[in-house]
Amino acid sequence: xxxxxxxxxxxxxxxxxxxxxDELIPLIxxxxxxxxxxxxxxxxxxxxxxxxxxxxTTHPSLLCELVKRLVEKGAEVVVGDSPGGMYxxxxxxxxxxxxxxxxxxxxxxxxxxxxxxxxxxFDEGKILKEFPYTSYLDDADVIINFxxxxxxxxxxxxxxxxxxxxxxxxxKKPEFHYRYPNHNDFANMLIDLNEFLxxxxxxxxxxxxxxxxxxxxxTPRQVGAILASENPYKLDLACSTIMGLKIDDVPTLSExxxxxYIPESIEKVDLNDDLxxxxxxxxxxxxxxxxxxxxxxxTIFGRVSTKLLKAKPNLKSDECVGCGKCAEVCxxxxxxxxxxxxKIDRKKCIKCFCCQEFCPKGAMKVKRTLVAKLxxx
Length: 377
Ligand code: SF4
Ligand code: SF4
Hints:
377 residues
């Protein structure tokens, strides 16, 4: 069994999804580990109320295929996530419905209806020692991380490692942005969540990924693949390679490398197939981090370059409808609505890009500075 496995899947038609899983499951060692009565929780990416065609959420066709196969083995399968926003039955069921995840019920799967919160104590965490998380995971014998491949304003890319931020209850997420305003700290927090939860298997829906203004307002982009691994860090390294990103473009990868979880190159990861076959030319990435290697230098140069190079949220005024969602999610209350438009207080802004992630109109963009654009490609 290779460390990272990838198979082609051209679209979400039943026939192609079945064919892809028929190929993928043996590559990951089969499903003989699934025993009757085993409780399997699938942590999907259900970030917000968007249809599957928006490419922001794990596609229901893939989830249904996996659920069907696990249920056939006798497992009790529950799909869940805590989207950004309220973590209660009314809110989350609206997300289930919009994302069509409730289709899993047709195949014997269940949707999480336990909206309780637990507290984790995690002494092994590098920076995350205690945190709240979604209680439904406490019932799991096994956890599967089933994520979506997307560009991401704050973290460069969203795939396996980032997906586990969804175990933090929605209303608590802004607090984490406030606690970890430095993007490398935030990445380490995400890595700690992965080390705490240790999913048995991670699968990436990269049939149609998201590019551009991700993770919710970008553009669907055909990739035509499903990836799977027991190792979320090496899996993300493979995903970043497909997207044309470097390790330094994605803080979860650069911090994983520092911890010794990934090698310096995808060449050193054992793959079942040639990744070049899946490379997407000109994937429109959000290069928030391409120059941030200067950021932590404790020098005047470091501080000046950070200011000159660091990407920031930028309002496209004509697309803003003044709904106030960005002000609601901003962890440092840096946004107010003035004359029907969002206005950012730059002195307060910690560049977490929550406003960009949750703007329902995609009016908030990631803006790279001119200097950053000139210095990097
Ligand atoms: S969430 Fe988007 S549309 Fe709503 S006020 Fe903020 S920027 Fe404008
Ligand atoms: S304005 Fe946007 S990027 Fe800045 S802190 Fe608020 S939510 Fe984060």
